[in-house]
Fold each of these.
Amino acid sequence: MKRAVFYARVSTESQKDEGTIESQIAALRKQVIEAGNVLVKEYADNGYSGAKMDRPALEQLRKDLKTELFDVVYFHNTDRIARDVTYQNLIITEILKYKKQVVINGKDYVHNPENKFELTVLGAVSELERAKMLERSQRGKQHRLRQGFLLSYGYNVYGYTYVPRSDNAPAELAIKENEAKIVRYIFETYASRKSSWTKIVRSLENMGAVTKTGKKHWPVHTVKQILKNSTYSGIRYFNTCRHVKTESHPLRKIKYGKKVFRDRSEWIAVKVPAIVSQKMFDEVQERIATEKQKYRKPREVKLLSNLVRCGECGRFCVAYHRYMRHYYKYKGVTVKVSGNVYYKSAYKCNRRYMDRVHIKSLDIKRCTNPEVSTRVLEPIVWQLIETTMLQPARLKKCLTSAEARIRSTQLQMEKELKALEEREQHLKTERRMVLDRYATGNLNKDKYVEQSLWFDNEANKLKLERTELIKRIPILHSKDVIDVSLRIFCETTRVRFEKCTNFEIRRQFLLDFIEEVVYVPEKITVKGFMPVQLPTYATDQTGETNRIEFRIEGNKSE
């Protein structure tokens, strides 16, 4: 008799309302009883998609894997685990890693090539089924939109209230008059060419107007979205864009989702109540296009662009450059010095810059971290790299995770050894129980021999695991791995550092080894990483490239 748990899942709200998860639970309970096991816990995600991993019951199951709560996990089918083949393999591999038995649709899953192939095929079928479901759903939605029926995409449009469809009437957008007044004010003010984005934001905050979520804080991009939204002129467009993954910053290989607009012929227009006239909407779009065509200073990449982070609020700092004039005060009056112009380039906190848009009486937490000149910050960072990152002895003192990583691995191994001992003790107890049953005549000879062979096989497996685990421990106490990695890293970076003769090479050097530069007044912290050749079992659970982080701290006055 084994301690068993099961996992059940349904994805849509309709399945949740219909109670289809109850049929899964009933079938899984029956499987556990028929196998002669005892059910100790049930895990169920009601109304969660199988395309995602962040499901409450699944996360709890994965946490409980590390305990001795159960011995076997039951699943109704492979698509209940996940819709994606990769996710299915990941979850099952994780379960097997902690020596738990897996039963799928009443069949014991053994980790062998045949079962792995079968799981991959079933997962591929689940993916195809999901893709077809999404395609049919999307096609049905587009068909309803072309017929002029409104869908719930317009629920969060400022100025409107979404009224769901009923048996007697289709869904619609109803004008919310208190918000519609704000929308008209924004359009009229901007169309008059008397106010900019910033002035409109400040005037809204002075008026006490609130956003859709009830906040008095109006971001500039919210005002821009309102002025560009054609819904207010009486036409709501759907199927306008698609989302793609792209490298928003090619140098650092950072990938984010990006909206790509479709051809206008693919857009689907649905009529809605208008808040502003088409003429006013066209005037606003004309001014936006005119302002966009005006001269703007081209972006100039600085040495530490996209690397400097504010040490007070945590936001990234933006680099700017402009020509400035000298001013002086004479009898309380600020006077501009004629012809005295100088060039200024600095890094400033993005949050502090954006907070200046809002009125001073607004109750928001503002960042007070001052900007720092590029002529001050860049030489200090470069000097810290030269004096510390290229010196093995100094860099070793700045390592933040080497000792912690080794200690964490040691603790993990100690837990694994303790678990092995508990399993061995449990195996001995079960063997004695079988022997007692055989001695009292409650177990025949053939069954006793069969179970004895199984116990011998399990004992040999535990012995091999213990041997392999003990072999690993001495390597962890060796400092040679980190010392050698330090020496190789410093030698390699020194060669590259000496070749940094122009801006592009120096910039790429920083992007390759530095993650961020944290700045607060009088203190600068350079965070980076060093690749290290650790044993396979000493890597982190995420399977990322082996590396150790470092923190180099310095003062602005140095």
Amino acid sequence: MLEILDLSRKLDPETARVERRRLGEELARLQRAAFVHGLPALFVFEGLDGAGKGDSLAHLVEWLDPRGFQVHAPRGPSEEEALRPAWWRFWLRTPPRGGLALFDRSWHGELVQRRLDGTLDDAAWERALAQTREFEQQLAADGTVVVKFWLHVSREEQKRRVRAWAKDEHQRWRAELARERREHGRKETLRVVEEVLARTHVPEAPWVLVEADDDQWRRVGVMRGAADALRRGLAARGVTVADPSAPDRAAVSPPVAPTPDTLPPGFAIPVDSPLARADLSLRLDKADAQRELAAAQARLRELEFTCYARRQTTIVAFEGWDAAGKGSAIKRLIGELDPRGYAVIPVAGPTAEEKAHHYLWRFWRDLPKGGHLAVFDRTWYGRVLVERVEGFAGEEAWRRAYREINEFERALTEAGVVLVKFWLHVSPEEQLRRFRAREANPDKRYKIVPEDWRNRARWPQYVEAVGDMLRQTSTAAAPWAIVEAEDKPYARVKVLRTVVDALERAVGRDAKS
């Protein structure tokens, strides 16, 4: 199977850049359609050390909404996982309806390694292959798109990349790991890989082989394979995603009548509110903002490696008005990070299981492990915001929540967690402008829902709730950062700078590794 690959294939950088943009924009549309239609997808990335799995993941998710995917990098079962059936930990990581799960190595890599190590005799090997097919076919039969990428690299290029890792202080650990894996030899490893590929390649869960000697060719190949898979999965449900440049686009998504404004007339933020101190006139020139954003993103990537090495855990919490730009700020925050080191957790209304517990239970469940970053898009502050305003929590419960939240956050920070909290603030006039823009844009119309207009009608009540929240829960260890978000470039840069400053205080401004 692997001998058919032409590893000399290349793409020039400009052609690759244009094709990546085209595919990226299509992937963003396909992801939105998958979310709307409840289509789950699971992508597996396998390959020899140095084949570019992490880089392929990073270039793929660059175009996706980070609230809609999770990246998993399993490296052998934990003590708890080892006490359960082998497939338990993988079942727990399968994607929800409308979500995407990406695996940097998977059950396939473990299968190869166990065969090479001699821990699977012939009978166990046959059973493991059968269980692999069964697992993937069960997911596919339930509607999950399952695609597996094998990134193949030549012996010479692999050696060159491992040598480069050894010279990089952030990547040196990868070179050591690659040397450990080379004990079985490339020829024997590929013999086992070939058998796994051949015997687990089925129509419901195919392997996509990607030549990986040339980075540009590999990145485009992975993005094309992902787009093809999502397109086929949606087509099987009778869904076609229209090209925005198509002449019949207007017919596909006709204009909608603007919703009448629901903000009570004559409302102004009280002068004693913490929000009144925010200067919404703050702006950044786009060119200056882009330079500052790029510098902050590069520094944050350095700090990500430092935090991983030192097991420094970070939580970034986002709250703010509807259409204040939380999603775009989160996307820039994680834009240059290794996707295996962070998770974005979108918080919606509690499920029946979550309602059966204390409201903080689900947030304890989603805390990141040491060395990782978790970004919460909306948070535990729902108890003193939406639940207070909408009457889902009684007055005694939401008043008690201020103390409980402070205790929760103190437990985190005393355990060494870096906790950064943002409130993104815009004026009612800017919010209305953004609502109208979403209604007018077919690609963004899904972002505006009736609940947004209901929340706008309660703006005075929310201003009061936000003011109380900021006063009651901004502590020395976990202060609130109010982000003036009237100008999106300014807001994005302020978010990045604030996170970088917090991490530099935690690990040292001169920290490199």
